[in-house]
Specification:
The structure holds two protein chains of two kinds. Chain A has 18 helices and 22 strands. Chain A is α+β, with helices and mostly antiparallel strands. Among the domains of chain A are: about 190 residues, no CATH class; about 100 residues, no CATH class. In chain B, strands 3-2-1-5-6-15 form a six-stranded mixed beta sheet, with helices on both faces. Classes of the chains: A alpha+beta, B alpha/beta. Chain A: Keywords: Acetylation, Coiled coil, Cytoplasm, Cytoskeleton, Isopeptide bond, Phosphoprotein, Ubl conjugation.
Chain lengths: ~625, ~550
């Protein structure tokens, strides 16, 4: 997988509690009874699920966690990413917390953006921070006259990418000042002559370049008597002459149009008024009014006392380009095809999907790409979803990386680390040999791995490990934990240990030296102040389709011989040897004032026994295809 | 696990939100000062003083499809972000493989893959709900929403209203999964469902339209008349098949045989293929028998399918139009050989129009809106319109075809006087724009234009101000897309028919919706509901 072997993942227990849905129970049973064909062989332990279809709700706990099921990807986290709620005494993953934003800042200039400005800036930095639209590297403000170099602050400025050498000159944009680039750019994209730019370029937010509403109305009404269609055509004829609107302009026009229509149809009294004043359209005056007041109350003031017409006006559709209607032009697409064919376009002249994702939706060519203001980031406080207890609270300053509160899970659960046991006990450098091996474990050859659990709590912890004897999935690997029950010492002060007896680490060293090479069932491999190491014996299974296929593998492949290759391809990590380990830990903690519900039995000296159980996945290595 | 354990704070909070909901329910039609929305009064004050003062009132709009998720705030013209559902998005946390070895779909696959398997990991769901693992869908949705909020929307999730733009036909298990995931994960006060077809029409400024959505799993043609969905027809000729076809073509290129491809498995990466489709898939303006007449030697240099990272390869430009042609237009296949679910695009449009009443047909046919990923393919829309107009010329608006009909018609014509012949012929030249009317449709208003009776005259005089809408001509109107339509609708404070309150959904799930579709009487004029009794909710079109 992504991480170098060996690695460990912890599955958040929230994966066991499905999304509560009142209508769900019946459905979930149906869906497990007939899983999709390719799902069947990867589903959690086929035999198990077949056996207890009926009583699956009761036996949810009994299911073996399958690291291979596609769902487990969403519940597995590296141990250091997990949090721990002290109220619920439970591990919390990003799925079982809620987040609240503390501050917004630009990751490029580290300026904090006030919350009132975030939305108006479009969640992007409002200063000079831009990313290259082609390669996403940060853009620098440079001057064109740099080559001559005599004037220090001379000439027009451009944004240039230091990585792919793209500059805004490529799209014909220069800036007058080296500051406040964002607003300059916005002004430019608003008002640049549309002839020189594509229509996607000009994202005009102002209504300035829309035609005057009255004029378009007059043109329609003049012709509507003779023939509506002629008028319509004339109106649509005008469109090519007028600059085609960009997305934003069209959106604004449509919004304006709908707003007027709603205002017109909701108080129809304005009709009389408009006809009296000689406005040809009922909307014209109202539109004027709505320019000044967004509320229709003022226009109601003038026309409200008039008797309403008998027939309520019907809301109509947009008829002209100024109302946001855009008739598709016939040669537009032909132009695009011609441009596709032209030799200067080519593959690299087209914007890729990634490039387009952050741009205006109708961007098609690289020439249409605009520099991207840097997306803001947030600092977020995190709370437990169930009890709202605060788990993480960062300092709000962007420059600070400190946290006021941070309850990471590793302070509460033992940190698992994995390391292969050197096969040859005589080797002086045991760490060197096995690391290369882990990417190609020979199948059917037993190996030993050392699992070290390191306790960070100030209480000693009792641990019980459990693994399925054979890993789920099609590669059946046998796993045995040689000493499944053990204790880990408390994380006492390091100085205590040093002062009490300096010999403690030495003894553990010597003991481990004595034990090296002889993993014994029922015996802890090694033990330190706050850590314990146990041995797992692993016999990697054979990959399906490999030459060293034994009976076990055959049984599986017979059932689904047809789609072996398809599955092998879709499950690209089938050769990865991952061991699900169920960890159950309990310890005696100091009873807190508010907690009675979790403690099983109160100890006399105000101690409560707490327990925590979760699944852990150990990534051991990759299995070789053949012996 | 229930998300809210009863506690002091929780009870306080529910009372606060319920009071707030009353305010929202009585939302006036006219624009008003936004009510300051205080999310969790009991907690918000302690951590983030800033977040409560933001204008949280703006609804957040999500458009969810099988491949993409678009999200943004109401009132903006384009979504803030577009997020895909690729295999990279369903990796474990801390699995940075995509960054280490390049995108997984870019390079060549180790071994050829079945075409269905090839697309599977890139889809959020499939229309056939038997094939989907709902739990996995929920996981993906949860993660996609969470990351969208954290990376792009930059606002606290769950504090503001949620507007979902969904296709009008959605399996109930999926819908239920989606809603229960969102409601149980975050504290959205309510979710409004909007139909993507209607929203596309709205974003084009229209009240009636024929919305052709060239989507991933299927292409739908939805006739909308006065904001109501009249009929929907669908075909499986869609972007997924196009992608598969392009994958096969590129696989053919990779293996070197430029001729007929006999492969049925794909060996090129999905992301690479999608890149090719999005850049260079195009459509010829008409079905040409003379294949290589237009610039036969025109070659295009694209990254080689065999090794896209390093080398380029020259590909005939015209070949890149083949998948579009083959998948969407089914050339050379007679209509009767196509199943109902796999009609070609022109037939789909034509049949949808044919199934409408003449009034609605006349209105819709001059308001054809293309949306969806496939509408970006250059040349496609013109081609569809051209073929539809060809179909209209040939068949008129009569569903009756076949040899028997021809014979009967000939017999009738022999009986008739020669002067009467013309009126029966549906083949009226295209220059007459009011062509599509055969004699069994006297109700077609365009037919009656020449003889204006006095009632008509009076109506004309009365409606002088209101321009009579264009109809009866094939015309295409550009839309800003369903997301923009929803943003428009929401920012105008129009409430949707389907508005699901959090508490009610959490009590009963989808089963809590009233079956009575007519229960909330829609406002006549706007077609959308603007307030009213909210004691019960309905699924309207989704029921």
């Amino acid at each position: 997988m992504s991480r170098p072997f060996p690695y460990t993942y912890i599955s958040c227990p929230c994966a066991d509690t499905p999304v509560p849905d009142p209508a769900r129970k019946r459905r979930s049973r149906e869906s497990t009874q007939k899983p999709p064909p390719e799902q069947a062989n990867t589903d959690q332990d086929k035999k198990l699920s077949a056996k207890d279809e009926q009583e699956e709700e009761d036996e949810d706990e009994e299911h073996t966690f399958d690291p291979r099921s596609p769902r487990s990807n969403f519940s597995l986290y590296p141990p250091e990413q997990l949090l721990y709620c002290e109220e619920c005494h439970q591990i919390k993953c990003p799925r079982c917390i809620t987040e609240e934003i503390v501050s917004w800042y630009c990751p490029s200039c580290l300026f904090e953006t006030p919350s009132s400005m975030v939305r108006s800036d479009g969640n992007r930095c409002g200063r000079n921070c831009f990313n290259c639209p082609v390669c996403t590297a940060p853009l620098a403000v440079t001057t064109i006259e740099n080559a001559t170099g005599n004037g220090p602050q001379q000439g027009p400025w451009v944004l240039s990418c230091g990585y792919c050498l793209w500059t805004t000159l490529d799209i014909g944009i220069k800036f007058d000042k080296p500051t406040n680039i964002r607003s300059q750019l916005q002004k430019m994209t608003d008002s640049t002559a549309p002839a020189s730019f594509d229509r996607s370029r000009q994202a005009s937010r102002s209504y300035g370049d829309l035609k005057h509403p009255l004029s378009s109305y007059a043109s329609i009404d003049g012709q509507s008597n003779a023939s509506e269609r002629d008028g319509e055509q004339a109106a649509s004829k005008e469109d090519p002459a007028a600059p085609p609107m960009g997305m934003d302009a069209r959106f604004a026009a449509l919004k304006n149009f709908y707003r007027t229509q709603i205002a017109e149809t909701s108080n129809s009294a304005n009709d009389r008024l408009s006809s009296e004043f000689g406005f040809s359209s009922p909307g014209a005056l109202n539109r004027l009014m709505s320019l000044y007041t967004t509320s229709s109350r003022l226009s109601g003031l003038y026309g409200g006392n008039k008797k309403p017409k008998s027939k309520p006006p019907v809301m109509r559709e947009a008829l002209t380009a100024s109302e946001g209607l855009l008739i598709a032009s016939e040669n537009n697409e032909a132009d695009i095809i011609a441009r596709l064919q032209s030799p200067e376009c080519g593959w690299d002249g087209m914007a890729s999907i990634d490039q387009r994702a952050t741009q205006s939706p109708d961007v098609r060519f690289v020439d249409d790409l605009l520099p991207l203001p840097v997306l803001l980031r947030t600092k977020r406080a995190k709370r437990c979803k169930s009890c709202k207890h605060i788990l993480v609270k960062p300092e709000s300053k962007p420059q600070s990386t400190r946290f006021r509160i941070r309850l990471i899970a590793l302070s509460y659960i033992p940190l698992p680390t994995l390391r292969p046991l050197a096969l040859s006990s005589t080797s002086a450098l045991p760490a060197m040999a096995p690391t290369s091996d882990l990417n190609s474990l020979p199948p059917l050859r037993p190996i030993h791995v050392l699992l070290t659990l390191k306790n960070h709590m100030f209480d000693p912890v009792r641990i019980t490990l459990a693994t399925p004897p054979v890993t789920p999935g099609r590669v059946a690997t046998k796993v045995t934990v040689l000493s499944p029950q053990f204790e880990i010492g408390a994380n006492s002060d390091v100085w205590d240990e040093a002062l009490q007896g300096g010999s403690a680490p030495l003894t553990s060293e010597s003991r481990s030296g004595a034990q090296r090479g002889v993993p014994e069932a029922g015996k802890v491999w090694d033990k330190g102040r706050n850590w314990t190491t146990v041995v797992l014996e692993v016999v990697p299974g054979t990959l399906p389709g490999s030459s060293a296929e034994n009976g076990n593998g055959d049984a599986d492949t017979e059932t689904n011989d047809v789609d072996v290759s398809a599955i092998a391809a879709s499950r690209q990590d089938e050769d990865v040897l991952e061991i699900p380990v169920f960890v159950h830990m309990d310890w005696d903690a100091d009873a807190q004032l508010d907690q009675q519900n979790v403690g099983k039995g109160s100890k006399p000296d105000d101690k409560v026994t707490r327990e925590l159980a979760y699944w852990m996945v150990l990534g051991v290595g990759r299995i070789q295809a053949s012996l | 696990m229930s998300s809210d354990t009863p506690s002091m704070g929780a009870s306080k909070r529910t009372s606060a939100t319920s009071g707030l909901r009353n305010i929202q329910t009585a939302r006036p039609v006219s624009p008003h000062t936004p009510q300051p929305h205080s999310g969790n009064p009991s907690f918000a004050s302690s951590t983030s003083p800033g977040s409560t003062f933001r204008s949280e009132d703006d609804a957040i709009i999500f458009e969810i499809g099988a491949r993409w998720l678009r999200a943004g705030f109401e009132g903006s013209s384009a979504p803030v972000c577009v997020v895909g559902f690729g295999p990279e998005d369903s990796r474990r946390a801390g699995d940075y493989r995509g960054w280490i070895q390049g995108s997984s779909g870019a390079g060549r696959l180790a071994q050829p893959v079945d075409i269905e398997e090839w697309t599977r990991t890139y889809e959020l769901w499939r229309p056939d709900s038997r094939e989907i693992d709902l739990g996995l869908v929920e996981d993906k949705i949860e993660r996609a929403f969470r990351e969208t909020y954290n990376q792009f929307l930059l606002t606290d999730a769950g504090t503001s209203r949620l507007v979902l733009v969904l296709p009008s036909l959605m399996p109930h298990p999926l819908l239920s999964s989606l809603l229960s995931t969102l409601f149980s994960r975050w504290r959205f006060p309510s979710a409004t469902l909007l139909s993507s077809a209607t929203m596309s029409a709205t974003a084009a400024g229209l009240r009636s339209a024929l919305v052709v959505d060239l989507g991933w799993a299927e292409t739908t043609a939805t006739a909308i008349y006065e904001y109501r969905e009249m009929t929907t027809k669908r075909t499986t000729r869609s972007m997924k098949h196009l992608m598969q076809e392009m994958g096969l073509l590129l696989t053919g290129f990779a293996s070197g045989n430029q001729g007929t491809e006999t492969v049925d498995k794909i060996s090129v990466g999905f992301a690479y293929c999608e890149e090719v489709v999005s850049r260079f898939a195009w459509c010829k303006s008409q079905a040409e028998e003379d294949e290589n007449l237009d610039e036969p030697g025109l070659k295009l240099s694209i990254p080689s399918p065999a090794n896209p990272e390093e080398e380029y390869m020259d590909v005939p430009f015209s070949r890149l139009a083949e998948p579009t042609e083959k998948v969407l237009f089914a050339p050379g296949v007679a209509e009767h050989e196509l199943d109902d679910e796999e009609k070609s695009l022109p037939l789909l449009v034509y049949n949808t129009l044919l199934s409408l009443y003449p009034d609605a047909r006349g209105t819709c046919m001059s308001r054809i809106v293309f949306v969806g990923g496939g509408s970006r393919i250059p040349g496609l829309r013109q081609r569809v319109l051209k073929e539809v107009s060809f179909l209209i010329d040939r068949h008129g608006w009569s569903p009756i075809r076949g040899k028997a009909l021809e014979r009967q018609r000939q017999r009738l014509e022999e009986l008739r006087l020669s002067a009467q012949k013309a009126s029966n012929q549906p083949e009226i030249p295209k220059s007459n724009v009011e062509a599509p009317s055969s004699d069994d449709e006297r109700a077609d208003p365009s037919k009656e234009v020449p003889e204006i009776d006095f009632v008509e005259q009076k109506l004309r005089r009365q409606n002088k101000d209101i321009p009579v809408p264009i109809q009866g001509v094939l015309r295409e109107v550009e839309s800003l897309g369903p997301w923009a339509g929803a943003s428009l609708t929401t920012s105008l404070k129009i409430r949707g028919m389907v508005e699901i309150e959090r508490e009610k959904f959490l009590q009963h799930g989808l089963a809590g919706a009233t079956r009575d579709i007519d229960h909330p009487v829609p406002d006549r004029r706007s077609g959308l509901r603007s307030g009213g009794d909210r004691s019960s909710w309905t699924l309207a079109g989704w029921a």
